[in-house]
Design brief:
485 residues, alpha/beta, Alkaline Phosphatase, subunit A, two-stranded antiparallel ribbon, 31% helix, 15% strand, globular
Length: 485
């Protein structure tokens, strides 16, 4: 009796069913890739036919993730009462001996350290904002602050992974991948999920941008984020080698696609579909990416709005303008990471630098989207993976070396456009900005709310893997309806 080939003997149930469908050969593949067919359904663009399952308020998301964790007590959570407690021990009734990182877990004193810079009220909503963030202060009437965010993780990588994937351990799909899987993309020539990274020039923050932050986990890999590099060609190998014309490249891809079709018909491996789709996307990006990255068509007033760093590829300002140009061209989810907020011992120097590097571009992005009529269906999110302690790390009397440790129990993020209220503040912390006092918002609540704004019921966006239906919010999450416009 002839044994099955090894690759068939180890097929998963999903691959086995795909193998049966593969008997139709090219016709079945065309149905999966139906993007090139005039009659292709909307879902063939990468999305699932049942989504959106409610009226979407947002079509696109731009997530400005501030890696390292901005100190909420120094940026948006104004606590004037802390001034009189400066240098005094934080009451145990407040900190409750909650778990902290190893950097201050053994610190004998938790001395209250009030806001590092002055605060002022701004806009018709009267929001309090640190003086180091004047540009964000100018747009407070367009944004919603959530001042009662809380999470479970006290270290960077697990906390970011939790925010983006709903789990502390790597391996789950990221929020962008879930969105790409559920809704697909509106763009024919760009990926549905794009990632860009930047960091402070001083390289003061040692945090690493792990690929699993934008990975697809157990979802097919065509839904993972495509990272645009900070120098040279945004994507490697987009340019044709010397002696290879675009016509020759097209012929090579057609021949390669045919070979892959034959392999797919034999094995039913869904990753072959991903491979063909990626080759096709790369071919289209050879034309779309040079146009995308050409800022010469931008008015000088727009470039000036984003700040002096906007022309430097790989800067946060450059990435913010790129984010606007990407959603303008139909990209569904854009994730901009910026590292440099990890102020354990350099709050007196690096905090102001981080504010200066990120404040103007963040505000410009919101203003730019608004004046182009894109803000109403683009959700902009700004925030870190947790906050920072209201007490001092290090010697409170040594201004040059003091800082703040990681603080997951209460912190602030803001959101703009895409169906959230404008000029609104939700939730509140206690008098020491340590714990939520009103309307706590968990990470899973945040994720459920983002999906809801995109027209997705977070409980229905699932994917069966290893015998279980997984979702971004695991078995938790409630939509924060109070912030919806």
């Amino acid at each position: 009796m002839t044994s099955l080939p090894a690759h068939l003997a180890h097929l998963t149930r999903r691959q086995f069913l795909g193998h049966q469908a593969g008997g139709l050969g090219t016709a079945a593949l065309a149905a999966l890739l139906g993007k090139e067919l005039a009659a292709a359904p909307r879902g063939a663009n990468g999305g699932q036919p049942e989504f959106p399952n409610s009226t979407p308020r947002a079509k696109h998301v731009i997530y400005l993730l501030q890696n390292g964790a901005p100190p909420h007590v120094d940026t948006f959570d104004y606590k004037p009462a802390m001034v009189e407690y400066r240098g005094q021990e934080l009451p145990e009734s407040i900190h409750k001996n909650q778990r902290l990182s190893t950097m201050t877990a053994g610190q004998k004193q938790k001395l209250v350290l009030p806001a590092f810079a002055p605060f002022r009220q701004h806009g018709q909503c009267g929001a309090w904002v640190c003086d180091f963030l004047p540009h964000t202060a100018s747009i407070v009437d367009d944004i919603t602050f959530i001042k009662s965010m809380h999470t479970t993780q006290v270290n960077h990588a697990p906390a970011i992974t939790f925010f983006l994937t709903g789990a502390e351990l790597p391996g789950r799909p990221s929020m962008g991948a879930w969105t790409n899987y559920g809704l697909g993309t509106e763009s024919d020539e760009l990926p549905g999920f794009v990632v860009m990274t930047s960091r402070d020039k001083e390289a003061s923050c040692g945090q690493i941008f792990y690929d699993f932050y934008w990975g697809s986990g157990f979802l097919p890999t065509r839904f993972q984020g495509v990272k645009f590099r900070g120098s040279g060609d945004p994507v490697l190998y987009l340019s044709n080698p010397e002696g290879i014309s675009r016509e020759v490249r097209r012929g090579l891809l057609d021949d390669l696609a045919r070979l892959n079709e034959l392999k797919y018909a034999e094995s039913g491996d869904p990753e072959i579909v991903t491979r063909i789709a990626q080759y096709e996307m790369a071919y289209k990006m050879q034309t779309s990416v040079p146009e995308l990255t050409d800022f010469s068509t931008e008015p000088e007033s727009v470039l000036k709005m984003y700040g002096p760093d906007v022309q430097r590829q790989g800067s946060f300002a450059y990435n913010c303008l790129m984010a606007r140009r990407l959603v303008e061209r139909g990209v569904r989810f854009v994730q901009c990471f910026h590292a440099g907020w990890d102020h354990h011992r350099n709050l007196s120097t690096q905090f102001e630098i981080q504010c200066r590097d990120t404040d103007q571009p963040s505000a410009a992005l919101v203003q730019d989207l608004k004046q182009r009529g894109l803000l109403e269906d683009t959700l902009v999110i700004w925030g870190g993976e947790f906050g920072r302690t209201p007490f001092c790390q290090g010697d409170i009397n040594d201004r040059k070396s003091l800082g703040r440790d990681h603080h997951p129990y209460c912190f602030t993020i803001w959101m703009a456009g895409g169906g959230v209220k404008a000029g609104f503040s939700y939730g509140a912390s206690d008098d020491f900005a340590y714990n939520p006092a009103v309307n706590p918002v968990h990470v899973h609540d945040f994720q459920a709310t983002v999906l809801h704004l995109l027209g997705i019921d977070h409980e229905r966006l699932t994917y069966r893997f290893q015998g279980r239906d997984f979702r971004l919010t695991d078995i938790h999450g409630q939509v924060v309806r109070e912030i919806l416009a």
